[in-house]
Write a structure and sequence with these properties.
The protein has a domain at about 15-55. It is built from two helices and no strands. The chain has helices at about 25-30, 40-55.
Length: about 70
Amino acid sequence: MSKETPCVAVCMIDPKTKLCFGCGRTLPEIARWHAMESAERLEVMALLPARMADAGLAQVAGSPRRA
């Protein structure tokens, strides 16, 4: 079973992109995370690497995200 959270305990929101520096989620995604169905979480997680790259935010070393 895969880990269903992209959180890497670097919880800071970039004021320009409105994305978390650590995981790439938005505040609304973070707030709703526990209410999301597993499939929705996995869909969001699949988008995060490209979202972070597009925003110019570096992926945190050791992050569980996959391409």
